[in-house]
Amino acid sequence: MGILDIDIVKAYIRMCSDGWKQGWHERNGGNLTYRLKKEEVEKCRPFFHKPGPWVKIGVSAKNLSGEFFITTGSGKFFRNVEPDPEHSIGIVEINESGDSRRTVWGLEGGASPTSEFPSHFLNHSVRSEATGGACRVIYHAHPANLIALTYILPLTSRDFTRVLWKSATECPVVFPNGVGVVPWMVPGGPEIARATSRLMREYDAVVWAHHGLFCSGPDFDTTFGLMHTIEKSAQIYVLALSAGQGRIRQTITDDDLRAIARSFGVRLNEKFLD
Asked: What is the largest CA-CA distance in the chain?
């Protein structure tokens, strides 16, 4: 038995493959991190190599000190995760100060964690706080229809949430708090990490204008399902606009949204309703 036979590692690799098959990860686009449970760390520990040097993350989060994350590598392709995991992904450990990381498995050949690790790290921090530690997955992908909407909708959380809720009946049930929107910023640094994490305190999903989408969740199925649902809703809206030559004849009303919420026992974010 090796580390690739451990259930959580297999599930992580499967999610990378599922995202690639959806077409959300051109070239080295997108990234995925998972915060390991203590028992999962112990299962993986026998396969750890001599730790690499401590490297500053650029941001800090004391509540993540001593944690371990599975992460995709910088410049690595999602399509290569399944056939070559040792070079495509790795496990990193966070120091006691919560501001540095070191590689303890994978990322062979001198690779580094994803360049978006600062954003993932702060998002893990705030989502862990918001969910009482339940959130363990942060997923960033480039779903084309959702990105297309960032060129035609006002870049506000209200405008995006309303369009997505009204384009597919399941959406208000899947993300009743709505989605956040970050205007275009240079990716990979602390500035966009902090802007995203501020919105992640309230939302499970945050749109990066002209770039992609961040989703969070307690497990791979929930997080992947959130990404999939948001992208499908965006696709429906794009198709409707195209078929109607820019005109939407009818849609789900605000009262309909409230009726859905009552029926499924969820509480919608009222600031997005008229």
From this structure: 62
Under 8 Å between Cβ of 34 and 64: no
What are the catalytic residues? 116
CA distances from 7 to 36, 76, 238, 266 (A): 12, 22, 38, 32
Instruction: Report which residue type is found at 24.
Output: W
* SS3 state at 108: coil
How many residues make up the chain in this entry? 274
By C-alpha distance, which of 257, 260, 259 is closest to 273? Answer: 257
**Statement: residue 37 has pLDDT above 90:** yes
Phi, psi of 102 (to 5 degrees): -140, 150
**Residue 161 reports pLDDT greater than 90:** yes
pLDDT digits (tens, 9 = 90+) for 47-87: 999 999 999 999 999 999 999 999 999 999 999 999 999 99
- Which residues on adjacent β-strands are paired with residue 89? 72
Q: Looking at the whole model, is its pTM more than 0.85?
A: yes
The answer to whether 177 and 199 have CB atoms below 8 angstroms apart is no
**pLDDT (tens digit per residue) in 231-264:** 999 999 999 999 999 999 999 999 999 999 999 9
**Alpha carbon distance 248, 94 (integer Å):** 49
For residues 224 and 18, is the Cβ–Cβ distance under 8 A? yes
